[in-house]
Each structure stands twice: as structure tokens, then as C-alpha cells.
Design a protein that fits this description.
Blueprint: E1 5-6, H1 16-25, H2 44-61, E2 67-72, H3 75-87, E3 92-97, H4 100-111, E4 115-121, E5 143-146, E6 148-149, E7 154-155, E8 165-168, E9 183-189, E10 200-205, H5 222-227, H6 237-252, H7 255-275, E11 281-283, E12 294-299, H8 304-316, E13 319-320, E14 331-334, H9 341-358, E15 361-367, H10 372-386, E16 389-392, E17 398-403, H11 406-419, H12 425-429, H13 436-442, E18 445-446
Parallel strand pairs: 1-13, 3-4, 3-5, 5-8, 8-9
Antiparallel strand pairs: 2-10, 6-7, 9-10, 11-12, 12-14, 15-17, 15-18, 16-17
Bound molecules: pyridoxal-5'-phosphate.
Pyridoxal-5'-phosphate binds at residues 10, 75-77, 101, 146, 150, 168, 170-171, 189.
């Protein structure tokens, strides 16, 4: 069988041990003579699996007795609408906006006619962090956060306080222990850390079950799921079965406490490569908001050709699912619970190798740059297209250092020419002929270029 390392953001890797058991049991579940997929959901065979799964979740996640574990279909996205339908009282809800998934939840709450307050947002900085100040008011029906932002690679280190905190934990569920004290409801689609798409896990504090009025459709009411032990209609049996196997696998790993230790080690391996890459790899998230689940980064300030090359080389080496989300671009390595340290190390080694092969830092002397202001203007102008440029303001002539491949050097020259910078000694002699605007723009010229590796 082809060996592939799957860094996909979801659906994502399911532990091989889990898939092997599922394979063994596919045609004949526990000597029943039938597949778990084909028996009645009311039969003891499935009911045992179903109830055991709930117990495993309670045990592993240390869910207090006054919470119910529910299994609902419709994905995590359906929760965006079910929440306001079920939990509205005064009609005022508060959100922290940390990206696409919270924005979608905000939209659905508005559709339900709720008065939505966004108490903090990281939109302005391109969702590169978890806001530092988040204070929910006493009288909101619920306060909403997305604990891990799958696209941007940001994650809460501590949840903010709120009397009814709602957490979308779709991309970091079961990856660290939860302090349930101020949580009203936590939900997660299964397809990242909990197995197969098709089931959404909702863990809700019991007092919240009684809020929903008669106007909430039966299939969208948490209370109906709680009363029927999530058998209000036919549940997604195979997804629940795979969730069961995944929870047993998690127990074998030492539970969420131990998996958290491993997740920290895995993330550190990749962030260390990024941080020591001299700007070749640039992480999207600010350091104190970095996710342990999704590592989103660009190569040399988002240089598309190089990123494509990275992805295709990675694929040649059997590493797939690394393309960043279409909204952010770049690269994203999703390293959920099922990804092993060895797999992450293989990716890290590849990143190092790729950098060695493609990192081409060169220093050029810039003639006639008289002042720091000129040099900084040049630096800013180049940064837009070429990423980070170092300017040595002490040296005379000034020096700029940038990471540059030969083909990109042509692009750089083109850019500089279009800005009115003479490039060679010959062109330099034509400096006088340039327009006044071009001259005043920086009044400097790139002259004799000396390559220094
Ligand atoms: C944090 C988060 N919330 C919600 C969703 C939506 O999940 P679903 O596709 O199950 O509706 C996703 C999907 O990736 C997600 O990452």
C-alpha cells in the first residue's frame, strides 16, 4: 500500500489502529454475522456501542454529571443555527470574532433575529491572533468562542469567563483537558479529532435544555435529543461507531492529558523550523496565539511559485493535504491527535531540506542611498512583492539583503526599473535622464551588485 502522510484539515487522518479494527469488523461485528452499518439502531448491538461511546466521552473528557452528551447530524455548521434557536432568552448574545467560523455563527444568530454584540475581534489584523481583552456581559444569553481557528492556525490558551460560554471546539476537541466550570455548551464535528464526519458531539449543561420554546422544530431541539438519548431519529451509526473506536484509541494513548503533551511536542517541532528559517517560512499566527492543531504559514512572504513547488515536492514525498485554505493561501499543516511525532518530524525535515534548496539570501550594495529614510522606502517598496528585506543602515554604500532566486532576480530588476532605479553601472549613468518624480521617489540607485551567499 502507498505510504501517505495526511496533513489534511478535515476530514483528516483517522488513527490507523482504528481503521484496522473497523476493517476487521466491517462484515461481521462481534460475531453478529452482520455489519454494524446494517443492524437496527434500536438493536442491542448498536445501542451498546452508542451508550459506551457516551460513557467514554464522559470519562475521557471528565464531563461533570450535570451535562448531557448528545449526537446530532448536520455538522458543526448546523449548531450555528441551533444555538440561537435553543438558547435565546433576552435575545442578546455576545461573540468573539476570530475568523470565518465565528463569522458564520454570527450570521446565523442574526438570521434568528438575535441582538448580536461582537465584544472582540481580530479581523483587523487578518485574524492572526486571539484578542487579548474579552469581557462578556452578565446579561448576555450566551457568549460564543471558536476555541481553535482551523484556517488561521490560532487557538485559545485559556477560555474567557462567561456564565453560559458556548465553545465551537470542532478542530481541537479531545486534544486537552477542559475546565467545565463556566461552559454552557461545547460542540464539535467529528471529522478532525473524533473520527468520521456525520456526527456532531454536543455537550450541554442540563439547565440549558429547558430554555427552548415550542416554536423550535423538533429535530432542532436539544431537549429532544437529550430525552431520547440521541435516538430521536436514526442516528449516523457508522460515525458513532468510529467515534467509539477513536475514544478507545485515545484512552490507549493516555487520554486527553497525555495527548496534550504530545500535541505540544508536535507543534513545537514545526514552529521551531519556522522560527529558525530566517524569514523563509512565515507563520500566520502571532506567537502567543499559535494553534497546536493547525500550523498555517507562507513561504517567503507568500511567493506563489515557491509555495506550489513546496506542495508538489511534498506530494512527491507522500505528504498530502498541506495546501492552505483558499481564503488564506500558503501552507497549512494540520497535526491533529492522530498525527504521530514521527510524521511531524518527517514534515519538519522536508521543510528544512526545501529551505536549504531554495533559500538564496544575497546581499546587494545600494549606491547613492544617502539617508535611512531612502533605504526604508526601498525596503517597504520591495517588501510588498518580495517579502522581508534587510537594510544595513550602517554600511556605506548601504546594503540590502534579501532572499532571492535567480528567476526572481529578473522580477526584482523589472520592479526596480519600473520605479526608476538604474540597475547597472551603465544604467546608472542614465540616472540624470530619469523623471523628477522617479528621482525624488527615493533619489537613490541600485548600482554595482555584489552577490554574497
Ligand atoms: C472550527 C470549525 N467550526 C465549524 C466547522 C464546520 O464544520 P462542518 O463542516 O461539520 O459543518 C469547521 C470545519 O472545518 C471548523 O473548522
Amino acid at each position: 500500500m502507498k505510504k501517505v502522510l495526511n496533513f489534511s484539515a478535515g476530514p483528516s487522518k483517522i488513527p490507523t489502529e482504528v481503521l484496522k479494527i473497523a476493517q476487521e469488523q466491517l462484515l461481521d461485528f462481534n460475531d453478529s454475522g452482520i455489519s454494524i452499518m446494517t443492524g437496527s439502531h434500536r438493536a442491542k448491538m448498536f445501542e451498546d456501542v452508542h451508550n459506551e461511546t457516551i460513557e467514554l466521552i464522559k470519562e475521557l473528557y471528565k464531563v461533570p454529571d450535570n451535562y448531557k452528551v448528545l449526537f446530532i447530524q448536520g455538522g458543526a455548521s448546523m449548531q450555528f443555527a441551533m444555538l440561537p434557536m435553543n438558547l435565546k432568552q433576552s435575545g442578546m448574545v455576545e461573540f468573539v470574532d476570530t475568523g470565518v467560523w465565528s463569522s458564520k455563527a454570527i450570521k446565523e444568530a442574526k438570521i434568528q433575529g438575535l441582538d448580536v454584540n461582537i465584544i472582540a475581534s481580530s479581523e483587523e489584523s487578518g485574524y492572526d491572533c486571539i484578542p487579548s481583552k474579552m469581557i462578556f456581559s452578565e446579561d448576555c444569553d450566551y457568549g460564543y468562542i471558536t476555541s481553535n481557528n482551523t484556517i488561521y492556525g490560532t487557538q485559545y490558551k485559556v477560555y474567557p469567563k462567561c456564565k453560559n460560554l458556548v465553545v465551537d471546539a470542532s478542530s481541537d476537541v479531545f486534544s486537552y483537558p477542559i475546565d467545565w466550570k463556566n461552559i454552557g455548551l461545547l460542540f464539535a464535528g467529528a471529522q478532525k479529532n473524533a473520527g468520521l464526519a456525520g456526527v456532531t458531539i454536543v455537550i450541554i449543561r442540563e439547565d440549558l435544555l429547558d430554555i427552548a420554546g415550542d416554536d423550535v422544530p423538533s429535530m432542532l431541539k436539544y431537549k429532544n435529543y437529550a430525552k431520547s438519548n440521541s435516538m430521536f431519529n436514526t442516528p449516523p451509526v457508522f460515525s458513532i461507531y468510529l467515534l467509539n473506536l477513536t475514544m478507545k484509541w485515545l484512552r490507549d494513548q493516555g487520554g486527553v492529558e497525555q495527548i496534550q503533551v504530545q500535541n505540544k511536542q508536535k507543534a513545537k517541532i514545526l514552529y521551531d523550523v519556522i522560527d529558525s528559517s530566517e524569514g523563509f517560512y512565515v507563520g500566520h499566527s502571532q506567537k502567543d496565539s499559535r494553534s497546536l492543531m493547525n500550523v498555517s504559514f507562507t513561504i517567503r512572504g507568500g511567493y506563489d511559485e515557491l509555495q506550489k513547488k513546496f506542495l508538489s515536492k511534498a506530494e512527491e514525498k507522500g505528504m498530502i493535504g498541506l495546501k492552505g485554505h483558499r481564503l488564506l493561501g500558503g501552507i497549512r499543516a494540520s497535526i491533529y491527535n492522530a498525527i504521530t511525532i514521527e510524521e511531524v518530524q518527517t514534515l519538519a525535515n522536508f521543510m528544512e531540506e526545501f529551505k536549504q534548496e531554495n533559500f538564496n539570501k544575497k546581499t546587494y550594495e545600494v549606491l547613492n542611498v544617502k539617508c535611512g529614510g531612502c533605504a526604508n522606502t526601498l525596503k517597504k517598496t520591495l517588501k510588498e512583492d518580495f517579502g522581508e528585506v534587510e537594510v544595513d543602515l550602517e554600511a556605506m554604500p548601504r546594503k540590502i539583503t534579501l532572499d532571492m532566486t535567480d528567476d526572481r532576480m529578473e522580477e526584482l530588476k523589472e520592479k526596480l526599473r519600473s520605479l526608476g532605479y538604474p540597475l547597472t553601472t551603465d544604467e546608472l549613468s542614465g540616472f540624470d535622464k530619469l523623471s523628477t518624480t522617479a528621482k525624488s521617489f527615493v533619489s537613490c540607485a541600485i548600482g554595482k551588485m555584489s552577490d554574497e551567499e
